């Protein structure tokens, strides 16, 4: 272990005391349902921006996607472009303000609740809640794995202890303090992440002799691309893969588009728009959110690609060869442990813990409120109280922990992309329709939600070979790992399911308007 | 640009910076807009 244990223990204790203090503050300020679900609708804009950013960016973005950048190169920067352009600017300005205004007017407290109330339909609330309850544990488990892997590699403690301890601390303040505790701790964690990523960028360039020198060295390594990757279309770490090749399709459709677009309809992010008093807070949050995301994913992807220069110079191997057991998720931790001073390893570990905890807390909260408020309540009493929601949160946390033990280790980036793709396919067209139509069509929303979910699942289980081969359904029913051949089996489910979901919404909308027009004419004729 | 020769990469970096700048400018220009009761403009 490269870390000074005394220093690490001291800093971690200070960090945990602050987190528990903020969690306690959230607990004290949580008096009623609105406090637990939407933080009383009076969160400060800077807290909103940092909480949104820290939830958005997990260990998955830093360790998982940073590792992918080490493998596939700087083309990942296009995900940062979408993260800032769509994930912050479009999300806050074009979706956030309307979500806040409509959410306040309808007194919505969760994303499924917002959908249900916008469409006046218990089905929409129930169905959105079910998609979250079934899909989000996959993403949550990936975040748990990422956090536990880093704790294990840095502290050399057993993986099981790391995973359980990590989950227990986050669970404590989420269950007791609700969204106020989640957002207060998120803000502190976002600040730590900003410090950690800034130092990481500066030290990496210093290590490699400067910005231009580092990039030039990386561009000069293209001859070292492994044969298997070169055959898949990879041309180097400072250039895009060959257009249309399987690696290009994975990079562009799964990683850039899947995650970049998926963020617009993430339930745990959408609910944050409803936590502020007015649109001024959202305007101010944009100013903080853009630079924050640049310093998160922009730095992770750049440093990830540049680890190739470091490992080649110091160990004579590319980053992929320096990964433990070929697992790309270990590249960034290995780079930090090998190249950075002790003090920074501790700071970066805290930043990674913070990144994992902030995302994890939000996912725990969203899953718990979806199960306890949107799904169970619909089959029980109309008025929900905090107790069943807290119990539901504990249940969803337990499910996620079990999944984390079952899922493979090298799953962080893929599980993130899968969840984001599912959210976009299932929710985005219906969510946009609800926000931008004065009389949103329930038929259109139902058709879109069902089509998007089914299409995403079908493509994932039977065509997109990276998932279909692992799931085994295609093999069981048709005797092949994927029912379509290349290039289709490299195309991400989102690229198919989102257009279908959008088309279903448009068809449903036209049918609905046609029926209304026909009814009106019939009434006029009868009169 | 800065040692990166493939335009498909450096244009990505340039756009990431442009969008960040857009967030900063938007936030500053609308710093006091959007108080409850006013029109949001979106």
TrEMBL record, chain A:
InterPro entries: Na/Glc_symporter_sf (IPR038377), Na/solute_symporter (IPR001734), Sodium:Solute_Symporter (IPR050277). GO terms for molecular function: L-proline transmembrane transporter activity; proline:sodium symporter activity. The chain crosses the membrane at residues 6-25, 46-70, 76-95, 126-151, 163-184, 191-212, 247-265, 286-311, 343-367, 388-406, 412-432, 444-462, 493-511. GO terms for biological process: proline transport. Its main location: membrane. It is a multi-pass membrane protein. One of its GO terms (cellular component) is plasma membrane. Keywords: Cell membrane, Ion transport, Membrane, Sodium, Sodium transport, Symport, Transmembrane, Transmembrane helix, Transport. It is found in: Cell membrane. Belongs to the sodium:solute symporter (SSF) (TC 2.A.21) family. This is Sodium:solute symporter. It comes from Methanoculleus sediminis.
